[in-house]
Amino acid sequence: MTDHVGVDDRRNADDGSTADGSRFRPRQDRRDPFADGVDRRRLLRSSAAAGGAAALAGCLGNGDESETAPTVYVFNTGDRTVTIVDAEANEAVETAHVDTTASFPANQYGTGADSGYDVCWLNVSGGVVALDQRDLEEIARVETGFGPNYPNLSPDEDHLLVAAGGTTGMDPEPDPDDPEDHPIVRVDADPESDEFGEITGAIETGYAGPCDVTMDADGEHAYVPEIAHETLRVVRTDPLETVAEVDVGEPAGDGDVLPFMATAAWDGDLLAVENGEGELGPDGDREGSESVWDVSDPEEPEEITRITRDDGLPAMPITSEIDPDGEVAYLFTPDADSVTVIDLDELAVAGELEVGGSAISAAWGPNREQLYVPVQTADHVAVIDHAEREVVETIETGDSPTGAVAGMIRPEPSASQRIAAALAGLGVEIGDSEPTACPEGNCYCG
After folding, report:
1. How does DSSP classify residue 325?
2. I want to staple 355 with a disulfide (CB 3.0 to 4.6 A). Which of 253, 284, 327, 382 is the partner?
3. Average pLDDT, the chain
4. What is the pLDDT of residue 439?
């Protein structure tokens, strides 16, 4: 292991720099919700919340009255709050300030109605952070040494895999005088373990650009798209080791394929991979495509098809979610302000769902029947009912919701978290801004 992989309780620098010295540029056209003055509805809601929380501050301690209930936690990157959503009533319960945020929290396993897992894993710049779902307080921090981090919890809820270092904006070639060695790390994710939050294994990939990690249903194998190497890496999770590196083939047009995100189907037979299709780098021109791979033999994955703009893909896909029955993949195509539906039987675009703005990720609710899509440019969550294949509800959130994850613990925030959230809703800066890695141009980082 190299010296940049380890556990560290230190927060990032106040200036937003990461452990490797890199920085993330905020979206230049990010909508300022207060540019035209404070919205009256927001003002009334936030003022009432602030007053109510302040009145209770004298008699309430830290939140310790959490209950079990289907819940979705929505991370608002604009003000570092969490909107707590009742996933049965599809209503926002309240918003709490947590002084951190996430664009891609670990959101597939450990999130179902039959799970008792009670930790949220967030990707922050420099590593990952664990929040206790009961009170939304930080209980672990793991430093990887790199700004971009993409976590995934194992189905048995014992391990967290993190791909660190990859991004569509990384330089095509490493610095010859100081080449980076991107890691894939395994973290003990069992809250009852004595090693909780500690790194238990690592794979050094070189300047490969591991951009995401997704696991099959048995948790024995994980798939890591490597954007700089133009490969799909297959990893055995225990012992942690690489078992295959598969070339992703030729690009659909100019440039390279640039695989960067992936989602394994729940039954383990298919893998959806998002590709950049173009030039790597901060100024790269990319068209995007979606690949579907056969991973029924996990150590010999084969690409079945690649869906491009010529096939009806409206914009570059950023991430995807696959329904529990493996019927469709929902692609988040923020430049089209929509979610693109891919029929996995026909292997074709089946339509688009308008969500009211730009969204880069989503999470299934605990019952796996509805998909919760944070819409960053509209300050709401669009709820997609899978059976109806349409948006059935929108839920108001905090500023710039970006990532979401489900669980069965309904948090009870502290009075101070409530007050801070209410003040943040009024545009008051609270604390330091901890960045989270996002696709450049699609998300305000921190």
Report:
1. T
2. 382
3. 87
4. 64
What strand order describes the sheet that includes 259-264?
Answer: 259-264, 270-275, 289-294, 302-307
Report d(CA 292, CA 345) in Å as an integer.
11
Closest by Cα among 398, 409, 323 to 368:
323
H helix intervals, 127-189:
none
- Residue 37, class by beta-carbon neighbours within 10 Å (0-12 exposed, 13-18 middle, 19+ buried)? exposed
Angle formed at CA 34 by CA 28 and CA 37, multiple of 5 degrees:
140
Numbers of helices and strands, H then E, in the chain: 2, 27
Mean pLDDT score, 394-416: 96
Segment 134-144 shows an average pLDDT of 97
Is residue 365 within 8 A of residue 406, CB to CB? The reply is yes
Q: What phi, psi does 17 have (nearest 5°)?
A: -75, 155
Report the distance separating Cα 401 and Cα 41, nearest Å. 18
Task: Identify the burial level of 181 via C-beta atoms within 10 angstroms of its C-beta, where 0-12 means exposed, 13-18 middle and 19 or more buried.
Answer: middle
Q: Is the pLDDT of residue 402 over 70?
A: yes
User: Where does residue 63 rank: exposed (0-12), middle (13-18), buried (19+ CB within 10 A)?
Assistant: buried
pLDDT band at 434 (very low <50, low <70, confident <90, very high): confident
DSSP string, 364-380: E-TTSSEEEEEETTTTE
Pair 339, 350: CB distance under 8 Å: no
What are the angstrom distances between the C-alpha of 374 and each of 32, 68, 260? Answer: 17, 23, 21
Q: Residue 382 pairs with which residues in a beta bridge?
A: 373, 394
pLDDT in tens, 222-249: 999 999 999 999 999 999 999 999 999 9
**Bridge partners of residue 274, in order along the sequence:** 261, 290
Residue among 357, 323, 375, 383 at smallest CA distance from 91: 383
Distances (CA, A) of 370 to 17, 381, 383, 429: 37, 12, 6, 34
What token pair was written down for 390? 């349409």
Give the separation between CA 290 and CA 308, rounded to whole angstroms. 7
Q: How many residues does the chain have?
A: 446
Asked if the bond preceding 239 is cis, omega within 30° of 0, the reply is yes
- SS3 track for 9-69: CCCCCCCCCCCCCCCCCCCCCCCCCCCCCCCHHHHHHHHHHHHHHHHHHCCCCCCCCCEEE
**pLDDT for 83-135, tens place per residue?**
999 999 999 999 999 999 999 999 999 999 999 999 999 999 899 999 999 99
Strand partners, 259: 275
